[in-house]
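Hi R.,

Here's the chain you asked about this morning:
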Amino acid sequence: MNLKPFIPSIRITGEVKDGMYIHIEEPTETISKDAVQMWRLTNTIGHAITLIIIAVLLYCADHFHWYGWVSPVLYTLGGLLILSALYSILLEPVFVQRHWRYRIDEEFIQLKNGKWNTKHVVIPMEKVEYVRTEQGPFLRKYGLYDLEVGTTTSNHTIPAIPQAEAERLKAVIATYAKVRDEEEEAI
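And here is the predicted structure, written out as tokens:
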């Protein structure tokens, strides 16, 4: 039995053929360039704290005469942490910012990220249950927000969007998906 005619499918490039495919344009909107500095700051803090912990453990291993294998393991971990820090602080933020794309229209929310391992998520507007913005202290420093879109089974985040754009997108998604604003309900 051939099930192919009964399975709806989405093709990103192409035309409508016999009602089987719909045309979805590629996401083109980018996240803020300030995200690079924010991610560098947070990654630097995280790696510095971990490096301090390893340094304290090395001191304790030497001062309290721990087993002989502890110091070489800690030096190895410290070296790997330094390599990880170089990647996470210098390269990864630029790479993520350059390859993060999103698009929001009346029918779909599209999220696309990655260069070698590309992830492209298409969320139909009728599946959206909530939309909210989040801002921690580091995002606040750069005037950025994360926009979270929730469906029945999962949630998806568009990171590091400027405040005005995040508020606009939140209102647009709520309108398209007919989601009620929690802040308005509280009033």
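One quick note: The first strand starts at residue 29 and ends at 30.

Cheers,
M.
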